[in-house]
Amino acid sequence: MSLPFLLEIGTEEIPDWMIPGALEHLRSLFLELLERQGLAGENVGVDATPRRLVLRAAGLPERQADAEELVLGPPQAAPPAAVEGFARKQGVAAAALTVQQTPKGAYWGYRKKTPGRPARAILAEALPGLILRISFPKTMVWTGKNGPRFIRPIRWLLALLGDEVVPFEVGGVRSGNRTQGHRRLGRPDLEVTCASYEAVLRANAVCLPAGERRAKIRAEAEALGAVVDPGLLETLVYLTECPTAIRGDFDPAYLTLPREVLVTVMKHHQKYFAVERDGGLAPHFVAVMNAAADPEGLVKRGNERVLRARFNDARFFWETDQKKPLAARLPDLGHVTFQAKLGSYLEKTGRLMELARALGGDSHAVRAAELCKCDLTTELVKEFTELQGVIGGLYARAQGEPEEVAQAIYEHYRPLSMEDAIPATRAGQVVALADKVDTLRGCFAIGLAPTGSRDPFALRRAAQGVVRILVEGKLSLPVRELAGGNAELADFLRDRIRYYFREVRGFRYDEVNAALAAGWDDLPDLEARLVALQAVRPTENFEPLAASFKRIQNILKQAQFAEPLPIDPGLLEAGPEAELFADYERVRAAARGLGYRAALETIASLRPRVDAFFAKVLVNTPDPDVRRNRLSLLRSILTEFSTIADFSEIVTNF
Amino acid sequence: MTSYQELIFKLKQYWSDRGCVIQEPYDLEVGAGTMAPETFLRVLGPEPYRVAYVQPSRRPADGRYGDNPNRLYKHQQLQVILKPSPADVIEQYLGSLEAIGIDLRKHDLKFEEDNWESPTLGAWGVGWQVMLDGLEITQFTYFQQCGGIDLELIPAELTYGLERLAAFLQVRDSVYDIEWTPGVRYAAVRYLDELQYSVYNFELADVPTLWQLFEIHEREAQRLIDRYPRAPETAAAAKRRYPLLPAYDHVLKCSHLFNTLDARGAISVTERVGVIGRVRKLALGLAQAWMHQQEAAAAL
Asked: Do A432 and A512 belong to one domain?
């Protein structure tokens, strides 16, 4: 008979962002358990609300299959006492033994049968350990210093195999057939079966399927005019058991505050969706309750009052900050530490201005570099740290700085993530580069390069930003120079370049290696070479030629032949060798001045001559002059045609 | 309508009914109820304890001259410590909200992750901010460590923001409009307090004097901690009478002076870490000595 299985770990509210990972881990731990114990099981599914992690499966057997093993005893010819002894050891009479024919001869043997254990017993034994093995970024103890660790206290455990409870205990809580409804809208002690479970929860104001909660929030919020931010949506899915969206209003007078500030307050601080109308913000918000309804409007009114207080604060800070323009705040940066060994933000500002000039920034870029950190001393940024830069840009605009300056300050922290765009303006790109390059140089110089997963100064993100700004902003600034002569930093940047083209842009790893081997100081140029390489790669001659290039490289390496001599046409053998030389000259002339793609196509046209050469000509000929001349020809071909990409890095099937 | 003081009475009664000692506020300046010895020292060691008290909490940097409707230099917390935390601690907490007149079936309540850490006290815990209709009304923490020491019994700490709760119950947009008791507004009781302390903390506090005071209290705290008779041959009774509680007062003084200097803008970011480290050293040293003293006293 096959049985359904239900496990619900009832907890106090688990941090929303940890739930999806925990569920995935729970599922894989359970699958491993089934596999290890030889238990079948199908449709293993997981789901969760903030107060419960749930795993359900179907088709579990009542018990493991019986196992049979053959235990060999003494040879058939052994004295009866030995045979008796063996039987005794197995716990059976000698009559139960049979003679087994083996390659070594005939032996007494016993077919030992081990009955499969009940699945319920196996689960009861394994589940406590399995539950406590679910990994969370941060755990706690609640029963005392040496108690079990979990993300939040476990308050009940529901474990059913078929109709029966799987009995076990974790942290003083015994498993049973009971669950709890919604904290305020459901009942606290509910008996369930595998079949009734989800419906009982639903009747007690708990919507178990996260997918259903997600769809409900989205549909209701959109119907109320909300802009549904996907990240916030996920947060709300795992912050509620019974989500319902409501719309609240705020005084349109607050719309004079910058949109960025209003949205930050709503989204980050209050977890509200903003509402848009005609491309601008409307004086409304959408909150998601963990409740079914707000018939008296109390929740709406409460949320409106909180938002009003928050907006009031923001307005107060905005007005206070205006009393001291950004430029007047420069001296204050002397008191704000950038990093203990790297000095204050005032010192950093000096370096940024210099870097902005060195990177070819215009006067707007240099002015932006001068002012870009001043918002760190404003009340609004102290309150909304996530808006640093943005606030500076808005203040610069309000205080009459040129638009280019304001824009560059506004966007100089970008890109904040892989998905975020780079600064749109040249001045913004220059200041953003200067800021990141200064941080990278400084931190690497004082030994703060990231190690393993530890990267407290977010240097990987800074370096990735540098790479993206150079490539996507088409800035041909020498990467090694940006590294300021620090070899470790240059290597770090090269790793980020490789990562970017492979993981973000999707180039094949050997193409990236081939293009990088031909140089990576000029990133827009590197990108152009990669694009050409990718385009030419599928053409008929390319991979065979790449294989030949690898062969050439091996020959030269074996011959320890580094420096080519000028080729003496007189020493060339008529036929394939002379023809290859002529073709080399032709291609060299033809490729000159072509775009990368056309040049690569032209180079690929060398293939028949190279093939013919290798088919007919012996490189290691006895005559040393002819040999040296031949190697020089090969070296010249390799050198001449590897400036776009090193073909020998291409992985081929030839 | 529930007045501000009725709110306090009701909460105290509720927790008194659940076995808590009802304490009065600690009579020194503290930044939070956690710093009062009834929390900081009581959570250490193996003795169960339940206590509730109102604690005026002073945060010099939060002063706004009495102008801002939501921010106060000094606000009041109702601090509850349940050591060890009972299995139904959240249900008990929800019961306290019902007790002050909040019908939870008509409101929205969420527990949002908010872990608490106090570097100066060497203390941390995990928990939530409890959001009622979008308003943070309580900080709920399971302490894990205090004074750098792993706790034996895990206490639940509930910290209610009393002004916020009262403003919520009375539907007021400004804390100053809260009715303290019929006919008396919050402003009438506290406005001058907010105004004058803001002026002092932001404008008139004499920085060299505050530094001197800091150093005096630091020295005295350290002297007492250093002289605590740890030696095994010291009699338990001699250990028990040793004045660690007065030493802790000096630690609290240092903490408050640090906050005032910080509000005054007298501490650069670089210095900050160093000064926090000095207070932390005192708190950790005191907690260690306190544990030792408790063990010695238990043998008596």
From this structure: yes
B214 lies in the same domain as B163: no
Q: How many domains would you assign to chain A?
A: 5
Min mean pLDDT across A9-18, A636-645, B29-38, B229-238 is at: A636-645
> Is cis: bond before A415, omega within 30 of 0?
yes
* Domain final residue pick, B155, B178, B201: B201
pTM as predicted: 0.81
**Of B70, B125, B152, which has the smallest distance from its Cβ to A309's Cβ?**
B70
Here the CATH number for the domain that contains residue B222 is 1.20.58.180
Across the interface, do A152 and B126 touch by the CB < 8 Å criterion?
yes
- Where do the DSSP E strands lie in chain B? 21-23, 49-58, 74-83, 109-113, 116-118, 123-132, 135-146, 149-150, 156-161, 179-181, 184-185
Indicate whether A252 belongs to any domain: yes
This model of the complex carries an ipTM of 0.95
Across the 654 residues of chain A, what is the mean pLDDT of every consecutive 10-residue run?
95 97 97 93 95 97 89 88 89 86 88 91 97 95 96 98 97 97 95 97 98 98 95 97 98 94 94 93 97 96 94 89 94 84 91 96 96 93 90 95 96 92 96 96 90 82 95 93 92 95 92 93 94 90 87 85 80 89 90 88 89 86 87 88 88 74
Residues of B in contact with A50 (CB under 8 A): 111
Cβ <8 Å between A184 and B104: yes
Name the minimum distance, in Å, from the CA of B221 to any CA of chain A.
29
Last residue of a domain, one of B145, B172, B201: B201
User: Which residue pairs from A293-300 have beta carbons closer than 8 angstroms and sit at least 24 positions apart in sequence?
Assistant: A293/A244, A294/A244, A294/A246, A294/B106, A294/B108, A295/B106, A296/B106, A298/B106, A298/B107, A298/B133, A299/A246, A299/B106, A299/B107, A299/B108, A299/B133, A300/A246, A300/A247, A300/A248
The answer to whether residues B213 and B76 belong to one domain is: no
Distance CA A32, CA A29 (A): 5
Looking at the structure, do residues B281 and B178 belong to the same domain, yes or no?
A: no
CA distance A15 to chain B (A): 5
Interchain contact, A290 vs B268, CB within 8 Å = no
In terms of residue numbers, what domain contains B293? 205-298
A294 contact residues in B (CB cutoff 8 A):
106, 108
Q: Do B109 and A138 touch (CB under 8 A)?
A: no
pLDDT(B268) > 70: no
Cβ distance of B109 and A290 shorter than 8 Å: yes
pLDDT at B30 exceeding the cut of 70: yes
For residues B226 and B183, state if they share a domain.
no
Q: Where are the alpha helices (DSSP H) in A483-541?
A: 487-499, 509-517, 523-536
Task: Tell me, yes or no, whether B190 and B53 share the same domain.
Answer: yes
Interface test with A, best of B110, B131, B151 (most A CBs within 10 A): B110
**Same domain flag for B26 and B149:** yes
- Domain around A576: 539-649
Contact: B270, A337; criterion CB under 8 Å: yes
B27 in contact with A, Cβ within 8 Å = no
Are residues B233 and B176 both part of a single domain?
no
3-state secondary structure of B96: helix
CATH of the domain at B123: 3.30.930.10
Q: Which residue does chain A place closest to B46, by CA atoms?
A: A144
B282, B162: one domain: no
